[in-house]
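Here is a typical sample entry:
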Amino acid sequence: MDKVAIVILNWNGAEMLKRYLPGVMMYSRDEATVYVADNASTDDSTAWLKENFPEVRLIVLEKNWGFAEGYNKALAQIEAEYYLLLNSDIEVTHHWLTPLIEFMDAHPDVAACQPKLLSIFDRDRFEYAGACGGFMDKYGYPFCRGRIFDTIEKDDGQYDQPAAVHWATGAALFVRTRIYKEVGGLDGRFFAHQEEIEMCWRMRIRGYQIYCVPDSKVYHVGGGTLPKSNPMKTFLNFRNNLTMLYKCLPEAELRHVMRMRWLLDYLAAWQALVLKRNLGEFKAICKARRAFRRWQKDFEQDRRQIQQSRRQIQQSRRQTQQGPTAKDSPAEYAPFLLLWQYYAKGRKAFSQLAAWE
């Protein structure tokens, strides 16, 4: 069994593989086995791999399962103590794996972690997709140490200490195999977007921790599959985010949050149509709301199971007077509305946000 299996999910990403896989092999092969799981690509990805990196273990999937289920299908075929889900557009650095392995080996109750994620285009700044570890407000809006909405901070070492976070980025997600399987992996129904945030939330509900380990550093292109302005990306983000809230929110918060999200989502749709004059984004948000309503009932059993897990871990904490993980875990979510903090209060850096601990 491998100690670490680096798994790169590929779909028509030959150019990214050609550019960044050599670095992954150079700086990782001594500590990990590298796999490429191909989501039924139609470019020359697999042929190039076989010719240039025959030592890479290739898993060929019969169709494009998307990010979430594609990884589930691939990881089911791999035996390893740790999985490292790695985007094909990641440039790794010398000694990037060791801090992640050492941290996870030393902290058995940590389910997953991520490296510091920096932009490949502006190497002194964090990268949008995960920066230095992710958080989420109670209404489902994600943010990061180093990135709030579209405001991305310069990396001045301000987040260089390991920290417990709400979620770790799927661009470079180092996860304990046992716990990945325990929680059922990524939710394949999401297809893509928000799936790592939702899985990390389920892990935390079960009492595990998620961390950022900034001693490990990588650079990310970002937006390689769908540009940020793509209506499909907008649709998936809104639909999946609503589904995540429905699955994971505590019972006492669900009704209030979902009512607020109805208002906020249609406000976002109005802004897209009237202020941005972006008909595609407007339609995508409305379509996402309808899609969520149609499939909400499919997640009722998931919600019941997650609520049961929450009650069990809360009971365990009451009995022991302490959580089963380290005491520095953050609250389950930030209690404020991030939109208010950002637009009304002008708090555009992570360090400026209202404290929630």
Observations:
- The mean pLDDT is 93.
- DSSP finds eleven helices and 13 strands in the chain.
- The first strand starts at residue 2 and ends at 10.
- The first helix runs from residue 14 to 28.
